Amino acid sequence: MFRSSLTLPSQAHRRRLPHPAFTTLTASPLVSDPHPHPPHASLPFKSHNQTRPLIPLPNSADQTHIQTQPPHCFPTYGYLVHRFRDSRTSNDAESFHLRIFKHGYTEDLFLCNTLINVYVKIGALVCARKLLDEMPHKNSVTWACLISGYARSGLPDEACAHFKRMVSDGFVSSPYAFGSVLRACQESGPGKLKFGMQIHGLLSKTGLDFDFSIPNVLMSMYGRCLGSVDDAYRAFCEIEFRNPASWNSIISVYCQRGDAVSAYRLFSSMQKDGLDFGLQPNEYTFGSLIKAACSLADSGLNLLQQVLSFINKTGFLQDLYVGSALVSGFARAGLINYARKIFEQMGEWNVVSMNGLMVGLVRQKRGEEATEVFMEMKDLVGINVDSLVVLLSSFAEFCVLEEGKRKGSQVHAYVIATGLIHSKVAIGNGLINMYAKCGAINDACSVFRHMVEKDSISWNSLISGLDQNECFEDAIMNFCEMRRSELTPSIFTLISALSSGASLEWIKLGQQIHCEALKLGLDLDVSVSNALLVLYSNTGYLNESRNVFFLMQEYDQVSWNSIVGALASSEISVLEAVEYFLDMQRSGWKLNRVTFMSILSAVSSLSLHEFGQQIHAVALKYNVAKDCAIENALIACYGKCGVIHDCEKIFSRMSERRDEVSWNSMISGYIHNDLLPKAMDLVWFMMQRGHKLDLFTFATVLSACASVATLERGMEVHACAIRACLESDVVVGSALVDMYAKCGRIDYASRFFELMPVRNVYSWNSLISGYARNGDGQKALRLFTQMKQQDQLPDHVTFVGILSACSHAGLLDEGFQHFNSMSKVHGLAPRMEHYSCMVDLLGRAGKLNVIEDFIKKMPMKPTVLVWRTVLGACCRANGRNIELGRIAGEMLLELEPQNAVNYVLLANMYASGGKWDDVAKARMTMKNAAVKKEAGCSWVTMKDGVHVFVAGDKLHPEKDLIYEKLKELNKKMRDAGYVPETKFALYDLELENKEELLSYHSEKLAVAYVLTRQSQLPIRIMKNLRVCGDCHSAFKYISKIVGRQIVLRDSNRFHHFADGKCSCGDYW
Known about the structure:
This protein is mainly α and 1068 residues long. It is built from 55 helices and six strands. A six-stranded mixed beta sheet has the order 2-1-3-4-5-6, with helices on one face. Helix 55 links the parallel strand 3 (1019-1023) and strand 4 (1046-1049). Helix 6 runs antiparallel to helix 7 (156-168). It is elongated and about 140 Å long. The N and C termini lie far apart (91 Å).
């Protein structure tokens, strides 16, 4: 393995080196040649990089002499050695080089080696290499100087290449050359593992592997290279006599690999050996052990405290290195009091101990205290760049971020004044981080723009800051700019870019970043995979979320929470979310608040009360049931499961822990369970307790008022919104427009819409749908035109309103034009609800023969919604095309056999065509299916409450007055020309019975009751079913007879009756 690239020189070609010269790393000086070579005047001497001496050069008296005449007999020679051997400047190097040439010492090996060493110390490696290439004589020291220089200057590939060249030229390497090239392999990482193993083989051949320093370097090299801890341990085992450095090296290897358990086992063995050989742990041993203890998540704290006790016994607590490590360790573990106590007990401090304490305080979000430590210690220890970076990070953890930003600006001014801002890129990076976390993202961008030098951390800091400050598009643009600058993005860059893409729901860009991660081999990193899970779940790509999760090589708690949350957020995958939650538990993962909130959301969607109780029990077991967020999720869950008393128990126990979400969840629970009065009472109670109603509260309550058309309650909430100064908010404004439209006050809705300072698509949709529902299709279409003129893009809901308006207004051609424009103009694929609207449009226009062909051409299979619309159209057709209605009825009974509406519609269709036998069959089928239909009822809201009526109602306390008023109305209507439309009496009865049956419909009883009271206000009646044609005709007569407006809301729309006419134009 080794022989292919590194071979020992043969005896015939091996240079003869005297014994002392090989072991002392020095070369003998040479007498000058009578014909000296030209000086190296062309070599540049411009480097100002000053480093400590790389290789010690002993006195010239210790050198082995190749020339016969000793050079030290010349006075100039001794002066040159004494004057320049410790030089560290380019001027000295140039002067030394010229004097060697001037005095004829260009072939003197000792002086040339010394000159190479000077070049190496100042970082002029090009000059050093050129000098080596031109030297007529070289030895192992010559090569060792250059190889060591490359290794220490961060050029490991050059160091390895020159080591190969040295061996190829027949030189026997010294231990120092071996140590330098092994360190170069160590810095290169896994890529140089094979070459390091070859050098190990060469060491074994030369017999130098027993040198006391070589095994330690070998262990470090193997430990640094991935997967080679066993080789490092093997090198350790081959050491016959182990010293503290050997033990420290192997313990450090295991600590760096994160194997704290093995590190402490080795420490135990070191103590046992110490009994026989007098070995004692030193400051480096304790430094590694402290680092190992900090890497343990669960038992690390206890271990750290034990190490502290041991250090106290051995007296190393006063050591600066050990004390600094302890301060940093306890601070990072969150035990700031321990860290402070150790810091105060230290005999002396340095910048490392100060920085360690500050880092711990920053991690505990105690930025003010970290700043105080800096101010107290800065004059005692002297600050470095790291100190300033940590100080800048502390400002972002101030309780008042504005104060943190102010102090950060002062440090910014200081680094500008002192010139430090351009000396180290880390300071600029720290400023970007500080400004971004303090919310001053514009200042962060300004710092970034003015940075002379930027690295990947600079870009990461900016992109992350933009993402955290919700400047998502800017974050994406800077990510693209970073890629154009040919810098390789890191894990943190990808996470921030994916987060911004997820927030913007830019799936195409997210997929491109996913491909970038694949190319870089970062896609399997658990944090990147988690960000991909969020991206795909936010954009609705659940299959991709599943694939990412399936391909992950390892999971963490975030991974499980992400997949459970993604699946729980989609109605079609809620059961799957429960399965993943159970798998998470079986895998032994600990649940946290995010897990519980996600699974409770899934349980809410499924209305699984018993499972919700089980989750509640698990939350109690984990001692998180009293967490406010969990309690809010439980209230929402129990509310949707219909167990309102459990909601009330949790809500009452919360007491002072309640927040806005708690109140909103309870109000939503009442509304979901049709307990609007309780919801409104809670709203008033909430206001009395001094809680401010937020946008969600107003939107929820207004939506509830709209759903039951409670205009009075809705107006009360409107008044509250005005007092809370939220009337101009676009969310509240849209909810108000929707509420007024659904309560029949389309005039109020239109007026408020015009007053809104800002409108969104929901505002437009609410009013368009309101016009359609209130029978003014033309206004709905005009508003749609105005919406497009104001550059507001329509969505799917918009077109549901537009098609519904066309349907109720009988605008067949306009309806098809708008339907076709969805895909051709606006890029919106029609959904099932749009096809249902078109079927309704055709049915109301009497185009029953077209409906069947339209359904056959649909790109998806018709659902219950479409078939019910078809059956409703056949009901209104008075017996025409019963066969189509029969097909629709059969499909409905197959798809939804437990829905009573389907049976009622089928029976009504047969009744409208006089098919009484089929009516009886339909009703018998309904009876056999044990399905009960909802009773038709109407209700009115009066000052003394809500009054509900059913057909032929005899239970109302004022029934006598009601029927007397109804009899009076019937007489006046007949005198005005009213004739009962008996075809709407869907029973096989005599004509007189049919007329009597029609006269006692619930809506007629309701209007008669209102007319028993003295008032001139509009009459508002609600009905849970579609109004029949006879009642519709009667209400036109009544509105003219009594001279009052009647607003009737049935299950489909509003009818505004006034002066004998209806807003629907008799087309509904």
